[in-house]
Every structure is written in structure tokens, then in C-alpha cells.
Amino acid sequence: MTQKTPDITVRWATENDLDAVEKLDETSFPVSDPEAERAAPGELLAGIQKHELLVAEESLGAKDKRTRIVGYLQYSTLRKRHKYFLAGVAVEPAYRRQGIGALMTAEFLRLLRRETLGAPMITCTTNPKNIAAISTFLRNGFVVSRYIPEFFGKSKDRLYLEWGIKRKMASSGHSVLVPVENLAYLSSILDEVGFFVTDIVNMPHGMYFQVDELRESKQEELDSNETSVSSNFTGILLSATAFLLEPVRDLRSIGGRIGVWLLALPILPMLEPVMNLISRWRTAQECTISQARTRCPAFG
Ligand SMILES: CC(C)(COP(=O)(O)OP(=O)(O)OC[C@H]1O[C@@H](n2cnc3c(N)ncnc32)[C@H](O)[C@@H]1OP(=O)(O)O)[C@@H](O)C(=O)NCCC(=O)NCCS
Fold first, then answer.
1. Ligand 1: residues whose CB is within 6 Å?
2. How far is the CA of 133 from the centre of ligand 1 (A)?
3. Which CATH superfamily hosts domain 1-114?
4. Based on the number of CB atoms within 10 Å of its own CB, is 285 exposed (0-12), middle (13-18) or buried (19 or more)?
């Protein structure tokens, strides 16, 4: 798995990357910042070993093949499959605002959508003052659904974000702009049922959270969206293969993969109707907003 821009490649981290990732974590979440929450001891290594940590790597020169780790993104798989928590994302300060955070987030979403036939349930938390992180998540399809005071303890309030809601909900047309400094008002408005932060907008007199009222889409709209997603037969086959391979995720040898494909070839034409059924079943399994709020994985 690799995702490339001209000089940046996003790939799974290996234990050789651990030092660089730990340094990046120290720089990005300094102990001197009382609001920051760094990775727990051993957490980054565990992420690498579980294959749940991506790195962004810059190639420094075609000739000597030198590279440098400039970003990482770590997630964890929650108790049930298809539920994930985006634990952290960081980009080296000198490389920020060049699209690397967005690139890693997009690649992370692409991987999980492939692994779950397009229906992962992903959550994350971030500091309500961290405009860079909130923008990165909102621009990649997350919405902020809750404001949680003292989530990680004193002075560590967090916004709770969920991915997938925007896909299932439609705007009622009722929007409110809240200045990014007015967190008390933001918190009160997010307590209203159906209100979500969907964007950050830059106005001449400052930055604002855009809060939208979202309503459940009609089933027909959902069906047509799902159909358009699932009508691509090749996509279905790739998803199906990834799905079938998931239990043997550690089977990384090229020979092993080719072998699985060869065994699967004769049955591929029969898979389309089955995959359509699975896709419909998965959609039905997705949590509604109210379920997501009460069964939010981070709170068990
Ligand atoms: C959050 C972070 C990973 C973003 O990485 P990045 O590579 O700078 O982000 P990108 O360049 O991909 O920007 C993604 C979006 O966020 C916006 N954005 C990024 N930094 C921003 C800032 N400081 N102010 C306003 N918007 C910002 C970008 O404009 C972009 O939106 P666009 O596509 O509409 O232009 C990076 O700032 C970081 O490492 N911060 C320290 C660690 C941290 O706080 N991590 C989050 C904890 S969960």
C-alpha cells in the first residue's frame, strides 16, 4: 500500500521508523503544553506492530535514495470490527500546510473503506482550539458531533468527531456561524439534537465554525447513493478480495497474494450478487446518529 504525491509517499510504518515517529510525537505534542495528549508509552510501537500506523515519507534524492519521515497517523480498531478510532495525526512543523495531513487522512479513509466495503465507523477527538486538526478532519468528511469538557482531564476539553454522518444525512438548510473563540456557545449549540460542525469558514473579521442542522436522508436517496458506490463491479471485487483477505491480514508475501487470487478467479463472476447483498446488509448495520451517540465506541 502506498499513496504518493511527487515527493511524499504514505505507507505502513515499520519498526525502523519508530525513532522518527517518536520524535515527531514529542515535537507535535510537547510536554510543556498542558492541553496536548501524547501517545502513551509503547503505544506507537504497538500501532506499528498491529499495522495501524501510517507514515508520510519524503524522498530526499533520487540518487542516494535517502528519505525522511515527515508525518504519521495512528488509529486503533475498536472492539467490534468496522469501528475505528483515529488516535493521532502529526506532521513535522516545517512541512505543515502543504497537504500532508490531508493526504494521510485521505489514505487512511481509503484503506478503511476498502477493508469494510465502504462502511467504516470512524471517530476521533481533538482540542477545540486546534483549528489545523479540526480543518483537516472536516475537509475529509468528518463532522463534529459533541463538545466534551475535560475529556482527558483538567484543561483537556475535546471535540468528538465522527466520519460517515455527512454521507447519511442531508442539511435542513438551517446553519449557524459560531466564532472559533466562542467555545461556550459552540458547546451549547452542539447539545441541540441534529446540530453538527461541518466546516470552518474564514471571514474578513475572523474564523467561524459552520454549524449545520442535519436530518436523516430519505431511504431512496441512501439507496441511490449506495447503488452508485456499489455499481462499480471492479470496486466490488477489490473490496470483496480485501474483505476475504482480512482474516489473513498478515499474509504479506506476494506469492501468497497471487495464490489467493488464482484460487479465487473461477468464482469471481458469481460474486456480484453476493457482494450487493453484503453491501446492503452493511449499510443496514451502520449506526444511526442516535445510536452513535449512545453507543459511541470511545465511551464503551
Ligand atoms: C493537524 C496537522 C496534522 C495538519 O497537517 P497539515 O499537513 O498541516 O494539514 P494540511 O496541509 O493537509 O491541511 C489540511 C486542511 O486544514 C487546513 N489547515 C491546516 N492547518 C491550518 C491552520 N493552522 N489554520 C487553518 N487551517 C489549517 C488547510 O488549509 C487544509 O484545508 P484545505 O484543504 O481546505 O486548504 C498538523 O497541523 C499538526 O501536525 N499539528 C500538530 C499535531 C496535532 O495537533 N495533531 C492533531 C491531534 S489529533
1. 28, 88-91, 96-102, 126, 130-133, 135-136, 139
2. 5
3. Gcn5-related N-acetyltransferase (GNAT) (3.40.630.30)
4. exposed
Q: What is the pTM of this model?
A: 0.76
Tell me the three cell numbers of residue 176: 449557524
Question: Which of 173, 89, 165, 70 lies closest to 130 in space, CA to CA?
Answer: 89
Ligand 1 midpoint to CA 96 (Å): 7
Q: What pLDDT, in 10s, does the model give residues 56-97?
A: 999 887 776 789 999 999 999 987 778 999 999 999 999 999
Q: What is the DSSP letter of 31?
A: T
Domain residue limits, the chain: 1-114, 120-216, 220-290
* Ligand 1 center to 130 CA (angstroms): 9
Query: What is the rounded (10 degree) CA torsion for 223, 226, 228, 230?
Result: -130
Spell out where 180-293 has E strands: 195-203, 206-216
For 90, phi then psi, to 5°, come to -150, 145
What is the rounded distance in angstroms from the CA atom of residue 211 to the CA atom of residue 189?
8
Q: Which residues contact 126 (CB under 8 A, 6 or more apart)?
A: 133, 134, 137, 158, 159, 161
